[in-house]
Design brief:
The complex is a heterodimer of chains A (330) and B (145). With 330 residues, chain A is α/β, with parallel strands linked by helices. A 7-stranded parallel β-sheet of chain A has the order 4-2-5-1-6-7-8, sandwiched between helices. In chain A, helix 10 links the parallel strand 7 and strand 8. Chain A is globular and about 60 Å long. Chain B is 44% helix and 18% strand. With 145 residues, chain B is an alpha/beta fold. A 5-stranded parallel β-sheet of chain B has the order 2-1-3-4-5, with helices on both faces. The chains are: A alpha/beta (330), B alpha/beta (145). At the A-B interface, helix 2, strand 3, strand 4 and helix 12 of A face helix 1, helix 2, strand 2 and helix 3 of B. Strand 3 of chain A pairs parallel with strand 2 of chain B.
Chain lengths: 330, 145
């Protein structure tokens, strides 16, 4: 199917077209880019919810429980589940469907697994595109699940309108480590596996961290859940609704929309620049020459990095690329 | 000429092959399925693993949503001649007609021809070298983009 056919079929509710369009977007193909350009005006209706937290925190189980709760009130659900790629083979095992088996046979749910594919910065580029496709397809709510380990993964969750941070009891040091930025990106905190000892301590720790966080107009609620037993899910759904109402209120809608879109544009530009720079640096051989010099201690890595940027600017200027600083001469 | 870095090469190379590994039916042993999933991952593929006790509908629906190029079914219960045709039927009814199918587990030699006739291009029994499965998938997986 070409872009025209894909867009028509996707907007008409064809699930196979949605699946194939996602493949194109993930591959960043010309068809994928064209589809995204065409469907964007149809987006903006879905609520987008990011769920992040460390491996084993219970994110998949929580996403499954949330999806079931949303289905119970008649809403359709898109799920984007991101798992890490192996840094060695670049392969991945995508196992999120295991926790959501019952949802597979529900026509009101569409679950797509994605591999993070290394640290190229392309993850958020692809994942936000997939979210747009699910939105345009007509899903009422899109859940984006990522392991909160690594900037890219966290960034994906924060491109959602509402970001939920999942922690566990007994993870004292882990909660401490969340100080560095993670607290500021979450609008809802969840202590999952709250039937385990130490749940109240974890809540207290999060509350203490919130007290010193730089909060704007919204104070993140801290909730306890036992996702496996479906406990606390109603309260989480309510909290999400409250935050969504907050972001769509007259007072905050414009600022929230700007925040959201600004983050998206920056992430996409960063990913494109990162990729272009890496490709140019490796194609021109400039990087390898500098590697030899620095490895031989004839030059320091910082000045080498600046030199690399200079040579990239020259390459971009010569090729007339749209990236890089404005060119002084034509 | 120096090798481009691994990072740079993933940006331009062909995308990883996406594979669904599923266990239809009621047997609960998925050691073999996991070994194959891992071998394919280690060969650079992205493997969606669905877990045990999958119905034909669940497998076909997962294949549709994940838009995989390859489906590998593992079965030990002996119900392959009952379940495999239903998987193929469910895939067809969803228009999923461009995937490579292969099967593994306990499939008696007498049944292999019948399983292949259903469209399973590869049938891999106990003791198969995982490198043979990797090679098979690389050679036969249809391209997507």
């Amino acid at each position: 199917m070409d872009a025209d056919e894909l867009v028509d079929a996707l907007l008409a509710g064809n699930r196979r077209a949605l699946a194939r369009a996602i493949t194109h977007v993930e591959a960043d193909s010309a068809i994928g880019r064209e589809v995204l350009r065409r469907i964007y005006p149809k987006t903006g209706r879905a609520q987008t919810i990011g769920i992040t937290g460390s491996a084993g925190a219970g994110k998949s189980t929580l996403v499954g429980a949330l999806a079931r709760a949303e289905r119970a009130r008649g809403r359709t659900v898109g799920i984007v589940a991101v798992d890490p790629s192996s840094p060695f083979s670049h392969g991945a095992i995508l196992g999120d469907r295991i926790r959501m088996q019952d949802l597979t046979s529900d026509p009101g749910v569409f679950l797509r697994s994605m591999a993070s594919r290394g640290n190229l910065g392309g993850l958020s580029e692809a994942a936000t595109g997939v979210v747009d496709l699910m939105d345009a397809f007509g899903h009422d709510i899109v859940l984006i699940e990522t392991v909160g380990a690594g900037q890219d993964e966290v960034e994906v969750a924060t491109t959602a309108q509402t970001t939920v941070l999942v922690a566990n009891p007994g993870a004292g040091d882990e909660v401490q480590s969340m100080k560095a930025g993670l607290m500021e990106i979450a609008q809802i905190m969840v202590v999952n596996k709250a039937d385990l000892a130490g749940a109240d301590t974890a809540v207290a720790q999060l509350r203490a961290l919130l007290a010193i966080a730089n909060l704007q107009s919204w104070t993140p609620p801290i909730l306890k859940t036992v996702a496996k037993a479906n406990e606390g899910i109603e309260a989480l759904v309510e909290a999400i609704d409250l935050h969504q109402a907050h972001t769509r209120s007259d007072e905050h809608a414009v600022a929230e929309r700007s925040r959201h879109v600004r983050g998206q544009i920056i992430a996409l530009a960063r990913a494109a620049l990162h990729r272009e720079a890496l490709e140019a640096a490796s194609a021109s051989g400039a990087l390898e020459a500098l590697v030899d010099e620095v490895a031989g201690r004839r030059r320091d890595p910082r000045s080498a990095a600046l030199e690399l940027l200079d040579s990239l600017r020259a390459t971009w200027a010569a090729s007339g690329s749209s990236f890089g600083p404005p060119r002084s001469k034509s | 000429m120096t090798q481009p870095s691994a990072e740079a090469s993933t940006a331009t190379d062909e995308r990883p092959i996406r594979v669904l590994i599923a266990k239809p039916g009621l047997d609960g042993h998925d050691r073999g399925a996991k070994v194959v999933a891992r071998a394919l991952r280690d060969a650079g593929m992205e493997v969606v693993y669905t877990g045990i006790r999958q119905t034909p509908q669940m497998i076909a629906e997962a294949a549709l949503q994940e838009d995989v190029q390859v489906i590998g079914l593992s079965i030990l219960s002996g119900a392959h001649l009952g379940l495999f045709p239903r998987v193929v039927e469910e895939l067809k009814s969803r228009g999923v007609d461009d995937v490579l199918l292969f099967a593994g587990g306990i499939i008696p030699a007498d049944d292999v021809a019948e399983v292949k006739a259903l469209g399973f291009q590869g049938v891999f029994g106990p003791g198969t070298d995982t490198r043979d499965i990797v090679k098979f998938v690389r050679e036969h997986a249809p391209r997507r983009t």
